[in-house]
């Protein structure tokens, strides 16, 4: 938990000879825009695809291609470059380059720099489908992973050669996001986290619903943050237009789509027994129509009343749910439950009361004015210490806030 995020401020970016090298120009732009320092090293083949001038202009720094470069004072670019970087990223990494890495070759500046480094190395392979599926490449990738080299991708889809399948380099935005995610402390490694997100819709008739303005952004950001922290996440989502959070580890997210509060409860109950942590972010309807008309209700000139009945309180139920699990640490007890509440005034007091009422160890009170539909959120953390021990966080972008909350949850849950 006290583990700090890895620094990715100074990036040594290797570019090798693949068509995707043109996308790396955009990647450099994204990194620079995010305030990072980027130094580019290219192989001779990479320079066949994109000129050094492009990378120099985008990075604002000299580009290195030659082992015998005399610019560094000590004449050893391969040593100097890694000493002045936090992380080394090769994008695209060609099949040839991966093979040379596996064998510890140092026959050009980039391979020699890799060998001389003490900083972490990440490769983003990019090649034609057959080259990727070739047993030699697969052996090489397995060996690189065994050597603690991180592999981003490859992606799947249309390739420059006309094939469709695995082998494309991830998109620049995905690589930038993956690097950011990779750097996060793994405070939830091995944990299973169940999260609800978004609104629910309660049917009035086949075409009309009662719903609310929840966008799902906070829940999705938390799902992403928990995955980045090493957890396996089940995301039970009400209706939203949001894409499933992206993370590179296959199988680290399972999304279950639901519409109503009753469906959300059923999906949560179906997944809770193996969960270590339950985070209830969804804005679940408190009431639903006592009955839903089978046919569309016709418009008339008279008033219409809809009888409402309360829905089940998912969080309060799960807080009392004895898990059925083969794991003795879980069996018979509820998961660690975290609730969310939107409060517009007396945030600490109302939040503390709600935490006690729900019987949960931790409640995150949103400041209602700052949250619905917004990219930012302000939150106050309330735990067993009640209103007096409440921790008010600064107003933050929901992704940044989610990472902070994931760390707070991890530190209390363990
Ligand atoms: C037009 C063209 C496109 C190529 N695209 C790729 C590619 O996408 N991925 C790859 O691994 N190799 C590709 N190659 C082959 C590499 O450029 C070749 O293996 C080269 O030796 C790689 O050198 P490097 O690893 O030192 O950069 C391509 C070759 C040509 C001529």
How does this structure look, described?
The chain has 15 helices and 21 strands. The N and C termini lie close together (9 Å). It folds into two domains: 173 residues, Flavin prenyltransferase-like (Rossmann fold), CATH 3.40.50.1950; 222 residues, CoaB-like (Rossmann fold). A hairpin with a 5-residue loop joins strand 6 and strand 7. The protein has an eight-stranded mixed sheet with strand order 12-11-8-13-16-17-19-20, with helices on both faces. A five-stranded parallel sheet has the order 2-1-3-4-5, with helices on both faces. It has a two-stranded antiparallel ribbon with strand order 6-7. The structure holds flavin mononucleotide (FMN).
Q: Can you tell me the residue ranges where pLDDT is under 50 for at least 5 consecutive residues?
A: none
Number of domains: 2
Strand arrangement across the biggest beta sheet? 12-11-8-13-16-17-19-20
- Please give the radius of gyration in angstroms: 26 Å
Structural class: alpha/beta
Fold-level CATH name of the largest domain: Rossmann fold
Name of the CATH architecture of the largest domain: 3-Layer(aba) Sandwich
Key terms:
5-stranded parallel sheet, single chain, binds flavin mononucleotide, Rossmann fold, 414 residues, 33% helix
